[in-house]
Amino acid sequence: MATADDTGRAGVHGVGLLVHRELEWKFREQHESDTGIDAIIEVASAGKATGRLIAVQIKAGPSWFREPSRSERGWVFRAQKRLLDYWLNHDLPVLVVLYDEASRVAYWQHVSTTHVAVTGSGFRMTIPASQQLDHSAAARLSELTGSPIAAPMPSALARLRDALGADHPETLAAAHEVAFKLNEAGEHEAALDFGKDTLSRRQRVFGADHPDTLVTAHNLVFTLNDLGDHEAARKLAEDTLARRRRVLGHDDFRTLRTAEALVSTLYQLGDFDTARSLGEDTLTRRRTTLGEDHPETVGLARLLITILAQMGNRSALRGTAQQALMATRRKLGSDHPHTLLTAHNLVFTLNDLGDHEAARKLAEDTLARRRRVLGRDDFRTLRTAEALVSTLYQLGDFDTARALGEDTLTRRRTTLGEEHPETTGLAAFLATIPADHT
User: Fold this and answer.
1) Domains plus CATH for the chain?
2) Average pLDDT, stretch 88-103?
3) What are phi and psi of 97, to 5 degrees?
4) What is the dihedral of CA 377, 4, 117, 135, to 10 degrees?
5) 367-394 per-position pLDDT tens digit
């Protein structure tokens, strides 16, 4: 049986791996105990340290996920006020990171006065489920270090060009960062100009197959798609994927990211057959290398389900969704929260396919498990209850739908309040259920 120390060590190791692999930043564990800081993250640009640091407190284990937030999807973190005072007065921005060892996913929140509520001798803070510690968090985390997404970068780049020359590796790394941050900020035209220029220079200086060149090419695919130039994005993605497969291998996580970018591009072009074929191959490799529950695996599975729905391929759509559920059950067990989320989502897929009876059976099983595992008033339990109400309505079982719906509405009013969108939405739906004329 794992001890608390074992779980804590697994959390530090898991978060360190995510920082290295997802963000491609530096991670330094702090070995002094009970200081309130477990590690220091250093922002890196194209593999080079920048000196911009973030302090991190890491919490791992199921106990940290037991209290869901009522204000948003996520979990409530509680600690003593003396720890809050230490963090708020720290020279570095401080993150609290919750690590789920089963799914190998981490969630973060910045410790600031806007995010915390003092409660007597302690405080609480929501760790949002939407803030996963992966590559999508890079821009926001970088901002915490005092480096805005785009504005200061061009002047810094100009200074580097004057001092080192436009083709110097450090200058090219800065130019790459400018292109990335401009695109993240929605300045796609400017990002395109920087991205094309940087790609051309890196191809000339490093060669077309150099990893740094391929990173720039990969990012440029997203800029082209954001600008609606899907055909140009397709050509660049196909070339980049071929090179990454040759240089990095078919199963490298960077290769698979470019494959997914090409799948998305093909989908936007309406080439569903090619998108499906590449998507299924990429999904299989992601499941093998990252695991069934990794965010990138789950995200790609959702994209593939969307493609299958567009193709009208009901059998394949249902099979993909059910395969994801079975794999999650095998890995985590039928009652694990992530398994129950997958089952909950499959209820909607089955209803969309018109198989309301199968949806009913799955919704009833999932509701019973969520009630037992999470409690009857947990927001996730109530969402599954509402899904079952909708399924019963589609089956014409209005009496059962109304009874469950009224119970669910009462619980929503108590836990979320009268004005919460999920409360008002359910109330509006219940008003459409035909009255009992028996």
Assistant:
1) 4-144 (3.40.1350.10), 313-438 (1.25.40.10)
2) 89
3) -120, 125
4) -90
5) 999 999 989 999 899 999 999 999 999 9
